[in-house]
Specification:
12 helices, 51% helix, two-stranded antiparallel ribbon, single chain
């Protein structure tokens, strides 16, 4: 079987980026990020955008889809696929191997299945028609299309709900475009639930100590609204509410910690769903470089 892409996936705090970087360095590759928030400039600590992870033996492994738009701009599934395709073609043109690394299930799924998305979908008369509905009507429509909604932030902002409906309807009517379909070798990082929870809590404490609250405060000072912080979710949502005085520091920490744990669980649900669809994921225990290297040598090469 001929693969054209290597995907490294796993839940948050699993160590995907570092493993993907080490493997890309080993196999002459470059990284494409599949993270829905690391695309935004100035959102570094909260999104876990540790650029030091991309350095190996003093050299940077090239990466794509990080720091590509401003927080005030809109990023969606269509834009991700457009930028992914551009980065993928650029890497292939250099006779290098593209490594897609991240935990945003919808983005990963769209690449594997080759979603047929067009920019007109987000600018059409259908958009205007949906925009005429109330937010309650839109929520009901989205829930009917997607009963097991993965990202609950889709229900908070009207524009986000409309775009989520458009994506859901597109998925329902045209699941994939065979011509665009990728054939990736997928490696998944699997960790015990207790280990993931421990890593998430330790990482959250470290990020709070290292200026994450100041990062969110700076975003608001530069014009990012609290509504947009809710849209970004998790760290930005709860710290935003703390900055508004709606939550005490302790409540913010407890609620955020719990929300990230739930997020990691939902990510794993996504990956299991992909397996049920017939997508093969080669699971490794933790950040096991040797096992991942062996899988690539056996299957990709």
């Amino acid at each position: 079987m001929k693969y054209n892409l290597i995907i490294i996936l796993g839940p948050t705090a699993a160590g995907k980026t570092r493993l993907a970087t080490l493997l890309a360095h080993r196999f002459n590759g470059e990284i494409i990020s599949a993270d829905s928030r690391q695309v935004y400039k100035g959102m570094d600590i909260g999104t876990g955008k540790d650029l030091d992870d991309y350095f190996v033996e003093g050299n940077v492994v090239p990466y794509h889809l990080i720091d590509v738009i401003e927080p005030a701009e809109e990023f969606n599934l269509y834009l991700f696929n457009k930028l992914f395709e551009e980065a993928y073609n650029k890497i292939i043109s250099k006779n290098k191997i593209p490594f897609l690394a991240g935990g945003t299930g919808l983005y990963l799924h769209s690449v594997i299945k080759g979603y047929n998305l067009e920019t007109a979908d987000f600018e059409s008369a259908a958009y205007e028609e949906l925009n005429s509905l109330s937010i309650e009507e839109l929520r009901a429509k989205l829930k009917s299309l997607n009963p097991k909604l993965h990202n609950t932030t889709d229900l908070l902002i009207k524009e986000r709900i409309i775009k989520a409906i458009i994506v859901s309807e597109k998925e329902k009517n045209t699941i994939s475009n065979e011509a665009k379909k990728n054939n990736p070798l997928v490696i998944g990082i699997n960790l015990e639930r207790s280990e993931i929870k421990k890593r998430i809590t330790e990482r959250l404490k470290l990020r709070l100590q290292n200026g994450m609250i100041d990062e969110v405060k700076k975003l608001t000072e530069e014009g990012t609204t609290f509504e947009k912080l809710d849209f970004f979710g998790l760290e930005y949502k709860f710290i935003g509410r703390y900055l508004k005085g709606e939550l005490s520091y302790n409540d913010m920490y407890q609620k955020l910690n719990s929300a990230i744990h739930s997020f990691a669980k939902r990510q794993m649900t996504w990956f299991r769903k992909m397996e049920r669809e017939g997508i093969t994921i080669h699971w490794i225990n933790g950040v096991d470089y040797s096992s991942a290297e062996k899988i690539i040598l056996e299957h990709y090469r």
